[in-house]
Design a protein that fits this description.
The protein has a five-stranded antiparallel sheet, sandwiched between helices. Helix 9 crosses helix 10 (about 315-325) and helix 10 (about 315-325) crosses helix 12. The two termini are about 80 Å apart. The protein has helices at about 15, 30-40, 45-75, 90-100, 100-105, 120-130, 180-250, 260-270, 270-300, 315-325, 325-330, 350-370, 405-410, 430-440, 470-475; strands at about 75-80, 85-90, 140-145, 155-165, 170-175, 310-315, 335-340, 345-350, 380-390, 390-400, 445-450, 455-460. It is of the alpha+beta class and about 475 residues long. The radius of gyration is 44 Å and the shape is rod-shaped. The protein is built from 15 helices and twelve strands. About 50% of the residues lie in helices and about 20% in strands.
Length: about 475
């Protein structure tokens, strides 16, 4: 209603009424319409004023409802907090996140929503929020552990922002649950660690291949020279025997003391010992250098860069190489026997990935035996290959501790491990499962008995089934 709508004759002089309409001490629920009626305004004017007031109150209610709807639709929890830390109001998400009813939250202290109440996160936030030197108010946030009203805890991010309501300084607490983000960050860190390890192993593989090549050259001529010495010793030994027989036969025709002096020199040189031990020494050296050559060759083949295409692979040779490479992992905890079918066909494989599968299974077998407390003489790993129609079955058995019932369904899950922190990432069997079933269309499973051991079976198809849902792999 404009000022011109009221004439001078009908205008009501509030100062002459002798009444005070509103004071700062009036209650918030003051009835404005009743107050207008008490002023004794003309009926037409009072009706118009009441209509305007009613319209204003309706707009206020609608505005409040819209604001409440918006606040309740926000996924973040919102608290309105007074200067001493009491909650004055909240939205629906705050009740959900804190697992509490609205009437229980209002009037309670905000310290109850933090785990670390001794260090009182609220005070730290407020101290940062209020710039003491300038008195300027600004918002600040932090990550901390929240406390639900049912006692459960959760990681949360909370923002504190100053606000003014009814002339008083209050604070808005805007917070949300960051459990998913924290789990995602942890997973990301683990994956980054795995990637770093993979890159490091790849670099070591290239380095090992170069070292193997460098070792192979001198070991070759050492082996050739030892073989030459071993063969030459046989000829010299036979010649020396003939000479001794001749010397003994014609000893009476020699000058006095010649045979006696020669016999003394043979005894001083311990010729009999040399004749017995030299062939043993050269043969042991040959065996040793042959073992070095075998390790070098296995290392070279194991570290050879893999092809992007599957190639026809001799699984027995793969296993033999892996056994040589992993010997230091199992020799202190178990003996190892091989039962490899010599008639195995070559099958299409990614060689590097299959190397990794068998290496993981053999190392796991050795660790299972260590966990059982068996000595190296009692521990045993058995590796067997069998041709089944057009498929190859590889079985790796150990007499270790076995797999507990509660862990059997999770054994191939990523990041699941029963090993101590720092001794296992839980990725070995997960990667093995992926290589066998996804990349090769095969199947992997295990049989286990607590206290008796475990056998892992790997069934590899004789044809390329990668990308196809093989019947055997889905059982």
């Amino acid at each position: 209603m404009s000022a011109s709508a009221v004439s001078k004759e009908t205008a009501f002089d509030l100062s002459s009424a002798g009444k005070t309409i509103l004071t700062p001490n009036d209650k918030e629920d003051f009835d404005v319409i009743a107050a207008v009626r008490e002023l004794g305004l003309p009926d037409d004017m009072a009706a118009r004023v009441e209509m305007l007031i009613a319209a204003q109150e309706k707009r206020h209610r609608e505005s409040s409802q819209r604001l409440q709807t918006i606040l309740d639709s926000v996924v973040e929890g919102i608290l309105i907090v007074d200067g001493v830390g009491r909650i004055q109001d909240c939205n629906k998400s705050a009740c959900v996140l804190l697992r509490s009813d609205r009437h229980e939250l209002i009037g309670s202290g905000t310290d109850e929503m933090f785990i670390d109440r001794k260090a009182t996160v609220r005070h730290k936030l407020l101290n940062r929020c209020i710039n003491i030197s300038s008195g300027i108010l600004r918002y600040d946030y932090t990550e901390t552990m929240g406390q639900r009203r049912d006692g459960d805890s959760f990681p949360m991010e909370v923002i504190v922002s100053p606000a003014h309501f009814m002339g008083e300084t209050s604070f808005l607490y805007i917070f949300h649950d960051i459990t998913r983000r924290k789990k995602s960050e942890e997973t990301h860190k683990k994956l980054e660690g795995e990637l770093r390890e993979a890159l490091k192993l790849e670099a070591i593989g290239h380095l090992a291949g170069g070292i193997a090549h460098e070792i192979n050259t001198p070991s070759q001529y050492i082996r050739d020279n030892l073989k030459f010495l071993n063969d030459g010793y046989g000829s010299l030994s036979r010649l020396l025997g003939t000479a001794l027989q001749t010397l003994w036969k014609y000893r009476d025709n020699l000058p006095d003391g010649t045979f006696r002096d020669f016999s003394k020199q043979m005894r001083d040189a311990d010729l009999e010992f040399l004749l017995d031990e030299i062939p043993h020494a050269t043969q042991q050296s040959l065996d040793g250098i042959n073992q070095v050559a075998r390790i070098v060759l296995s290392m070279k083949e194991f570290s050879h860069p893999g092809s992007s295409e599957k190639t026809a692979t001799d699984i027995n040779r793969i296993l033999s190489n892996v056994i040589v490479i992993s010997r230091n992992e199992w020799k202190h905890s178990a003996s190892l026997t091989e039962d490899l079918d010599p008639e195995l066909p070559h099958i299409p494989c990614f060689v590097n990935e299959i190397n990794q599968v068998f290496l993981n299974l053999i190392v796991n077998a050795a660790q299972a035996i260590e966990s059982s407390g068996r000595s190296a003489e009692e521990g045993h790993i058995h590796i067997k290959t069998t041709a089944i129609d057009d498929q190859i079955l590889v079985s790796i058995s150990d007499n270790g501790i076995g797999i507990a019932k509660e862990n059997r369904s999770k054994i191939f899950n990523p990041f699941f491990t029963t090993k101590e922190v720092g001794k296992g990432t839980g990725q070995g069997l997960s990667i093995t499962h992926d290589i066998v079933q996804v990349k090769h269309g095969g199947r992997i499973w295990f049989e286990t008995q607590i206290g008796k051991g475990t056998t892992f079976h790997v069934l590899l198809p004789g044809e390329d089934r990668s990308g196809k849902k093989a019947a055997a792999a889905t059982k």
